[in-house]
Here is the input.
Amino acid sequence: MKTLVWAEVVKLAKQSKTYYALGAVFLIECLIFITAYYQGSTILDVLLDSLKQSFYFEGTLLNGNLILYIVLNGLWFNVPLIIMIITSGILTDEYKDGTIQTTLLQAVNKGSFIGAKYIVAVGFTLFIITFMLLSSSALAYSIFGKGDLVVYLQTLNFFPAADAFRRICWAFASGAVAMLFYSVVSVTLAVWIKEAAKTWIAAALFLIITNLLLKLDLGITIANHFFFPKLMDTWQAFFYNEIDWSSVWINNAVLLGYGVLLTSIGVWAFRKQDIG
Amino acid sequence: MLLGEKLSKTYPSGKVLDNVTIQIAPGQIYGLLGRNGAGKSTLFKILCGLIKPDTGKVSMHVARAKPIGAIIEKPGLYPYLSAADNLRIFAGIQGLPKDKANIVQHLIKVGLPVDRNDPVRNFSMGMKQRLGIAIALLNNPEYLVLDEPFNGLDPIGVASLIQLIQQLAFTDHIGILLSSHLMVELTKCCHFLYVIDEGKMVNAGFTNQLIQDHIQRFSIAADNITTARAIRNYQPVMGMNDVKITCPASQIANVLQALITEGIRVTACTPELTLEQLIKQPTI
Here is the structure.
């Protein structure tokens, strides 16, 4: 298994599209920074003018913490879509190039082969989220500096500068669990669909439906709590004044459970499938 | 011995293999002839364990970690990696040594240049076939299965590949199964031929015997052949540089003898066996 995982890492590192994905994430960050730099102050001033007259804020409101929060909102659609495209490609490219046949004609276990794909998809997702956190933090703080964070979630929530970064880091960590779920979904879709373009469409559709279901009241209490779309926004919990830690841990554990279940289904299906 | 017995496979589009039996012995070269869509690739995939037959079984007596090396339909390579990196990846996943000396040895074995570091997407079809064979040969398989290995190759590439295949069978004692819809290439290098049509094995036998049993046309090149009396009874069709005659294999020696007696110097006599003949005159 170790050699298969290493081979997957080498293949991912040697493909230009991996760097396009990193570039895309970085480009989105840069666009956020540029927009915020030129228009952010004006918009915030209009929105928060009255509040500024009543409260004292440390630093400017348009600061690195707010920018990081905006970057975090990429976890709704942009980032998972990029992740799903790359991670599904880990398998669909093998079908396209015929290398799946070549690999399975070697002395390689079919289950280990697909298992290694899932492991690398998970590793790549964690790498992307870490890259996002590090690159956006470095740029956001160096360009916009530190300051208090104001977030509107049902009501305006204020976080002192020191507390804001801690919450942002936790949110990235929790968001990573959601992204892991999406990456596992994309590899599982690729097991069945096999073709890259069709898998991308299915992945985008899955993402849209998940986001729609997140907002929908399903009418059943347990479904409203534990159906996977309802768990995708757990990272937002860190931007309420009181963090509901038990809910955060439970939601992420359940989401990881969904991931393990999907991985098991994908491995089982792949082992049963004919190749070719 | 690699043995596929009574193999059948049906897809939603229809039955692609119907009760097919095939066997491959070490050190021998076998050819599988058939038109496009006859079921060759499906049979190969079943033999290699990539797909499961609906009925029948594949058995082999091997003691090696990798019983079969194969290229099916096209050599599956990572186009963005160099030849050496492709070999390194496929060697690595099997726990084989992937140091430079080993990789170079595999490249040399199939006649690939050792100093090319560009991605294999730049390679010619012949070079890709060779690299595919090098990968198939990793981990020392007992059998080698090559599906349409001559596709996209020029005549020099075909000759060179045939030489490599013969070397692998005779020197390394590997049992080899080749498929093609090109008769001439297979008859040049195979000990034994199988003929498949519409999913059924319609003919099988030693190559020489099949040629002898089915050949009905010969191409003869000779000086002044147009004036020869010896070929008049064999429906001669004059070509630019040869004449084609319809004649059973058992009589060709007499025809050639008669030509020589007439004083005609024969420079070539080539049997023209077509796939259609092997399909239309089944022996099994």
